[in-house]
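Human:
Class, as today's exercise, you are to examine the entry below, and be ready to discuss the fold:
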Amino acid sequence: MPFDPQNLLTGLFHVAVAAADPKKVLPGFLDKVLKDQSANKSNGKVIVVGAGKAAAAMAATFENHWEENFVKESHLSGLVVTAYGHGVPCHQIEVIEAAHPVPDRNSEIAAQRILNLVSDLNENDLVICLLSGGGSSLLALPAQGITLGDKQQINQALLKSGADINEMNCVRKHLSAIKGGRLAAACAPAKLVTFAISDVPGDDPAVIASGPTEADLTTIEQALGILKKYQITISDNVSQWLKSPKAETPKKPYESSIFQIIATAKQSLKAAAAQAEEMGLKALILGDDLTGESRQLAQSHAELITQVLEQGQPIKAPCVLLSGGETTVKVRGNGRGGRNTEYLLSLAIRLQGLANVYALAADTDGIDGLGDNAGAVLLPNSWLKADKLGLNAVKMLENNNSCSFFEALEGLVVTGPTQTNVNDFRAILVLPEK
């Protein structure tokens, strides 16, 4: 074998992450905006705001590019909020760290300060908004009459319910004073340019970070329906707000706005596929927008692996099956885990040590669930090794204890914060049967 399977899979993961690195992808998109701003010679303010796990890295990249290419007399300032541990030093743009996936007081403070920064601007001013995955939690300013505690309780309940990202963001928008297009409304009449790294299936600008600069087509009725669907208890404050017409989000696009997506899961998967093919392996991208429960997706992928080995369909081994998107976990137990380790544990149960099949699942932001790992790797000998350690895979899956399973096997992938986020990355290496 000309390569080590585990190193190959981790290498593909790093290629995927690098393809979404703000330092690599953002400068090319900035040039036109900077030139246009130079051409108008308005000497207006330039305010940089943003939220997400990549927001600080994006801000640092913007700052560096600005200093190298833009007129010195321009006034640059701003503030971005990122997750704890994801900060990057900036000179002119302030960086605040806050909690994810459940907001904290810093999330609220940062959101209010960002709203204050973009208020009272004129048509000569320019607002640059830098968004990435995690922005919904990090940019948390409760709507009138709602407390941070209300938002925290609902957010936690949604995370445990198995609700998908579109459902969660619909509710978040209608409980927010800044999301769902409200930030764009506050920027008027200034020009607004948003650069975003997409972590959502379908790359809908209105869903990324709950769309603070995009008009929102979801409704109060839909938000209430989602809360009812997952049987989430809400306080009287929240109930009263959602009965008010003020809770409805802006439906009309902000005319002086441009939205540019600079990195997606599809781009990262294509980069990984190209790398695999350079190594002599066929690569098949199953989709960049796969959703549903992690354990159920693993079951369907186990069936696909069997097809590849037994029928050579839809691709022949040796090959790599790649996929992205955002799965969900319905919390049934009290174990430690995340979307990606849960996927792999479910896959392990179905494969039960099937020879010549290796898999990696990890979150491109470097954090899977609430742990400090990005995900894990599954090897052909993982099943036997777990048995020797006395690990009951089925019971651990029932208890959502997938992280502990792979930790015991020394199979966790630990990268630390990557300063980007195009969501889940999965790679399955299938080698021919001997």
Summary: The chain has two domains: 5-14+266-430, 21-263. The domain at 21-263 is CATH 3.40.50.10180 (Rossmann fold).
